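I am writing to request your help with a piece of structural work I have in hand. I am sending you one protein, given as its amino acid sequence and as whole-number tokens for its backbone shapes. Kindly check, if you would, that the fold set down in the tokens agrees with what the sequence suggests. You will find the record immediately after this paragraph:
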Amino acid sequence: RYQSRRMISNTRETKQYSVETRSCFQTCQSNLQTQVLVVVGPSQIQRLRAGKIYCIFLHFPLEMFAKGGFSQIYAGERRSNSTPVAIKHIPKKNVQHVRVKCLGNVYDEILEVVLMKQAAGRLCDGSFENPAVIGLMDTFNLGTEVIIVIERPPYAVDMHDFLNEVKRIPEGQTMAIFKQIINTALLTHKNGVFHRDLKLNNILVSWNNGTPEIRVIDFGCGDFVQHEPFRKFYGTPEFAPPELFRGETYKAEATTVWQIGAMLHIICARAVFKTPVYMKEDHKVLKNVSMECNDFLSRCLAFDPKQRPTLEDLLLHPWLE
């Protein structure tokens, strides 16, 4: 008979209780809406934020579909209604927390969770609604790891896999996709969030009556937008801006514009992109795309960050009209 042990804080004392799997399962089933586990102690009913057993009863993991240096992500389903979800496991040592003050309340929260909520405009009033940011469904703070449960849009695929499958994306569809990416990045910055790891793997695309729809995922390398330049880079090194390789500091918006250009270059040139390599190459006009697209690329990928357009300027570029 498997028993799960939970540490429960009761005033200043810390007591330990055993909960049988059967009663735990019944409790979880009856609390799917409130998503708290009720444990009966000697003196009173205690409410405990989800533990690992509870997470499994809420969400059914199917298979691992992504693994990085800091986390593992499983495809899964929500047991109550079979909604597709992605379940991200992050070791506690790789988790950053931040103090949040919102509507008079102050609390500690996982940085990635705060960035995701704030980027989407769901953290506090006064933010811009940003529906293309992937939605957060739940978090589970366990002893050795944190689990973040997010939306998994049906029929969506990341842009990297999509490009490998179709080999070539028509320029009209590419333009529609990047207009959405830039709009989403602009709203993300207006909401005070710097994604810092925009790449094809972190852009999901699905099709609605022939029209592409994108979702931005993985804020694990992100930070808050700040006026001062950044010194340390967290993200995919191949897509870091050239100023970083020159030993300089970097700014949020100029870096985002560079990464947008890097993604577009991969699609248009059908070639691997690495900033240090790109800095050494001679760049010719790409013959398979329009001159407007070539001009857009050259502006995004300007080596001098001061020469790169802002995100608002990009939306006014003739290629996107």
